[in-house]
Each structure stands twice: as C-alpha cells, then as structure tokens.
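> run fold Alkaline/neutral invertase
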Amino acid sequence: MSIPNSDMSQNGNIRHVDALCSVAEIEEIDFSKLLDRPSFLNMERKRSFDERSLSELSVALSPRHSSRNADNSSRFFDHPEYVFSPSRTSFIGTPRSLTGFEPHPMVAEAWETLRRSLVFFRGQPVGTIAATDTSEEKLNYDQVFVRDFVPSGLAFLMNGEPEIVKNFILKTLRLQSWEKKIDRFHLGEGVMPASFKVLHDPVRNSETLIADFGESAIGRVAPVDSGFWWIILLRAYTKSTGDSSLAELPECQKGMRLILSLCLTEGFDTFPTLLCADGCCMIDRRMGVYGYPIEIQALFFMALRCALLLLKQDDEGKEFVERIVKRLHALSYHMRSYFWLDFKQLNDIYRYKTEEYSHTAVNKFNVIPDSLPDWVFDFMPTRGGYFIGNVSPARMDFRWFCLGNCIAILSSLATPEQSMAIMDLIESRWEELAGEMPLKVCYPAIESHQWRIVTGCDPKNTRWSYHNGGSWPVLLWLLTAACIKTGRPQIARRAIELAESRLLKDNWPEYYDGKLGRYVGKQARKFQTWSVAGYLVAKMMLEDPSHLGMIALEEDRQMKPVMKRSNSWTC
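> ok
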C-alpha cells in the first residue's frame, strides 16, 4: 500500500510522515493494512503476533518447544505490534491537524474540558472524573470509572501524553490487590474496581484512594467489564508507546493472570460464554441483560486476544496462554454460530421446530418461534446482520447493542463478512440507530408492561431514555473505529457531523432522549467526560487512521468457521 504524502525508504519502512492524508482520501485506503503498518523509523518488519494463527501458537506451546531459552519470554514485544507511533502536539498540548485543515472549533473546547476533569493523586494525574457538572448533585460522578476512562486514555495516548495512562494502569492495579468484601462475602482476588476517588485530608495534609468494587453501586453488582477494559487499555498503551516494560512488570503480569483466572475457571457452564448478572457493564442498571450479554462476550474475546500479546512466556504465562487459545476457539465458534442474526438466520428461526431432543437438534436452545418480537422482522434488512443481545436456554434477546457489535468488529470476533454486514445494517437503519444524535446504546426501547417487568419500573430507564434506547455520544469513538476498520469512514464522518451540531451547544451531555435522540436526557449530566473524550478520539482517528492500531486486532484465520447459515446451528 502506498501512503499519501509519505516518504518511503528503500526497504519499505516509513522514514517520515508529515501528513497522512486528507479526510476525503481516507476512503481510498485499504484499512486492514493500517493495523500491520509500522510507524517508527528504521524498524525491521517482523511478522505480527496478531497474524499468527492460534494453531501455530498451540504448536509453540507443545512440550517439545517448552525448553526454549528464557530470554524468549519477552519476544512477543519485538514485533511491529509494539512499534512506537509518535503523535504530533502543539505547544498548548492539543494536536495539530495532520490533514492540513484547521481543526474544528469544538476540538480546542473539548481538550480544555477534558483537562479540567483530570484527577491528581500526590501530584500525579491518575484519571478523569465522570463529569464536571457542578449544577447537579455529585453522587458518584466525581469518581474515576475504569470504563469511562478508556476513551480519555486513548485521547491522551493519541495526543502523545501516555504518562497519565501509565499512572492509571498502575493505580487501578494496586486497588485490585485490596480486600473486596460485600457484607460477609469476599469477591474474587482478580476483580477490578468499578471506580475510585481521591480523598483529601486538609488537616493531615494527606491523600488516600477509595475504591468501589460494587459494594456501593446500584444493585450491588461487581463490574465484570472493568478487568477487560484494563487489559485492552494496557495493550493500547504498549502499542502506542512501544514501551513493553509496563506490561512486563511482574505486578501487571500477575494482575492479568488474576483477571483471567476469574474468567477461565471451569464450572457447570456448558457454553464458553460468561454468565453475568444484570448491571455488570456499561448498562449498570436492571435492563434484562443478565445471562450472556453481547457486550461482555465481545469484551471478553478482545481481552483474551490482547492478553495473548501481553503475557510473558514463562511457566505461569504459558499455562494461561494455552487456556486462552482453547477458549478463543470455542468462544469464536459459539458467538459466530449462535449469536449471529441475518435475514436468512431469522427466517430459519421463524420456522424452527421445538422440543427437539438429541445431539442432532437444530433448535439447540429450544427457542419458541412465537417469542420472536414483531419489530425484528421490519428491522432486519435483506443485506445486513448483527450479533443479538443474549442467547440462553429458551431465550434470545434480539435487541441491537452498539458497544458489543462495535467491539466484535474491532476484536475480529466478527468475521470480515459479518463486520461488513453490521455496517450494512447501520447504514440501512440509520434513522433508528443514529437519528439526530448518534448513537443508540440499544434498539429498540422496551416499554409498557414489558418495561415494568424487565426494569422493575425504573424511572431512569423509561422508553428511549438512558440505557433503554437512549443516545450516547461516547459511542462515537467505537463507531468511528469500526467504520475505519471496515473501510466505511463516510459513516463515521456523518455521525461526527451530527454530533458537532449539538454537543458543544448542549454542554457535552451524558446522553440524549427520544426516538431520534433529539432531547438532552432528563437526568443527563452536563460536561460528561467520556462524551468529550469519545468525540476527540473519533476526530483523531478519522484524521489519522493509523491510530486504529491501538484498539483493533486483525482476524485470526484459524478461527474462521464456514458461514453457511443453514448449517450454523448444527455441529
């Protein structure tokens, strides 16, 4: 691939990049190759670990390969996956445009708002608070949330400011080691906090950290997604800076192993997916996502793949890598076969027979066709598809969830064909999923009697509000990354332009209400940090698509199943 406005050395390495390309030229680039593109001078091209098949890895871990020199334990950090990607910053700390155009006026305002949200602990920045809105009661919006910080961390990495991300990773790692107890029950050692805050004692002139592992959360649910986001951010830091020393720290290696131990423990499960309670992720209130929610499964898949890149090949790391490889094979097959829905599969489910018994059953989960909601038949385009919200015995949640589907694309849980189908669906159903303010956290909203049963009459999750079909600007960065990876930047540009027409004027709300996302959410905080950071990350990725490498992984070809829809529910 030739890169516009780039000087190339004789051996093909990039010597200098003054400006990557104009925004209009982005559509002509083969985006899949950006993930493999080294960004640093004079680095020898090596085969990326991302491109190695899991079957090759299994061979490497066989007993006859186990006697390799101990120095090989860090060899996975030597490939282009960890090449430094320099970021150009202006003297005021905001990135200058790589396209040659003046940045949008919102960009400077966004950076100023993001920097106001910084939290310091003993003189060092360690995160960003959820919102800087002083007009409302703070509740827990003055805390640093692990999931909320991810877009902030990515923004700082893309702007060449990795120190705050490093501090955040190390501080949350220290919190992981704390005793975690709710009433008389101890949580698993590997659980990461949902959030933390810094307490200042002016009398003693001291600062302490206080963490919430779910004991203060609504519903008292531990955050399943925090550990996955932590691993994903650690990989983004390593990819962006080329600094493998952080990931190689014994503390970080142990932290990853503890998180993975929670997820890879064998029990009564018959599926490779993770069984979760309601409210364990971004949708942190009762919304009927208990069971096997797509958001958690996609994050689980991505965290496993990132862990493969980060774990050392010592005795402890090698054992986990073997378990990860097996789980990834099973998880990818399960998700691609049973969670995937397109026009053909919907028609097959509509015609299912029930009460089948034996290993030859087609309707393996005994889903009753009469349980299919009416809306899904109109929502499903002839071309397009998506991963549905949940699959468990006799239950399929057909709702569309944005975060899970975007992460499926970025992690390559979705095959290239499925990724394109997801983008086809977003284009076909733009009014429903984007409306006037992108992007719906889920679609459609639940209402009336179903709302009373599923949410317990939750006054915050009324129809087309908050988690129940609300529109969340933070999802811009995930949509943009997915668009770039699939070669559809025009979709991201359209979404960003919609957001730019309102976000600054409305003071960066947390979410919008209404079927089209027309109204600022009834309980939405203003100056919501991840709304700001999500916009900045989306803008910077669209301007410089090479940033995509921080948060995207190429497909492992050995995990690709035969996608014949008529056979997708048979072994």
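Confidence is low (pLDDT under 50) at residues 1-29, 36-92, 562-571.
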